[in-house]
Request: fold
Amino acid sequence: MNWLIRWNARSLASQFLIMGGLVSLGAMFVIGLIVTHLIEDAVIHNSGAATALYVDSVVAPLLPDMQKESLLDEATAQALDETLGQGALGRRLVSFKLWRRDGTILYSNKKELVGKAFPVNGKLAQAFAGSLVARYEVASDPESAEERSLGRALMEIYNPVLQPWSGEAVAVLEFYETAEGLEDSLARARLWSWLAVAGLTAIFFLVLSILVFRGSRTIEVQREALKARVDELSALLAENRGLQRKLQLSSQRAAALNETYLRGIGADLHDGPAQHIAYASLRLDSDLLVDAATLQETREKELSWIRSSLAEAMKEIRDICKGLVLPQIEKASITEIVKRVVEAHQQKTNTAVDTTIDEDDPELAPALKICIYRFIQEALNNAYRHGGGVQQAVRAISHGGAVRIEVSDQGEGFDPTQVRPASLGLVGLKERIDSLGGEFDIRTGEGGTTVIMTFSPMEVEE
Reply:
């Protein structure tokens, strides 16, 4: 299994180089053997055919009608002896035999073989079937003991003697010749055959290797890009899971904060307007108002107290409503939003707020506009209540949909770790900003406090 793991770890190009090289070598070896064998057979057959044609043209006219004669007469045998022993043919021929179909040697230049019968081998049977048989090998037949004793390869040829009018093989001429130069021709044929096969195989493998290496490089690049994409998607998935968890926590926190807001509003109504109304209600049941003996001046004084309590209750109810109801800001720009909330704070607290605005009039989502208004409103209230309203400042920057709001003061500052989780101000701001995908930051110390809200460009609802 280890070798399989190591093999799979290799690139496709290296795998092809190894396996393709082995297959190419095997194919080259097999094809080389086949081609070399075919070329050797062709060279031997052509050489044998040329010699057989020459011998047939010289010897065939001397032979009698082989269908009528079973043995050669003395005159024919002597003519063959003289013909085969002279000239170039005599120098090349090592032995000569004339076979009858039953395996009997009718004539041979080795006189001791004449009249003897031998088993008909495959080469002789093929020749009697009408085919020329040529072999280049060391003699191995029983009747070829003398040729075998030479210890070298000879050209062995079986040439059928055909009847002129019927084309039937009536006898077979077998002869061995030295075949000078044939071994060199075969060696050159083998060499060039192997060189041609090796060259073509190398070119074929080289072209395939170039294509495979290019494809492998492309695949590797795509694999790396895909791996990077998978890593990126995995990181985004982990981030999305974190954001989902954060959103769930923000939703839970928002529900708790809403409940706390409602309790706060209830407490404000109970401790303020409700007390004044309850006081007025008690004074309405006073005997001074129903007793006819009560002086008009005393009755008017009592009614004045009742009207004053009711007026105070109405004033406190309006103040509570003013803090809950937003002005119409859906169509307002950041400049208008900042000016409205700052002016409202200045009128309420009778303090000054330094304002800096730098915007390119981007189109913002309504939820972001509400968040900006509430952020500045709550931050200024905190600066007034906890920082004494010393050198309050608002700085708003918006370019290309990205928003950054800073609210600062020069008060004493505070320790952020000491802020209670149930506190509505800072915790509520952070939860509101987190729910919209923004960032909330506090910088505080002896030199004062700065609260920062930042948003990246966000999609605007239609």
User: Anything to note?
Assistant: The domain at 328-462 is CATH 3.30.565.10 (Heat Shock Protein 90). The chain has three domains: 10-189, 272-325, 328-462.
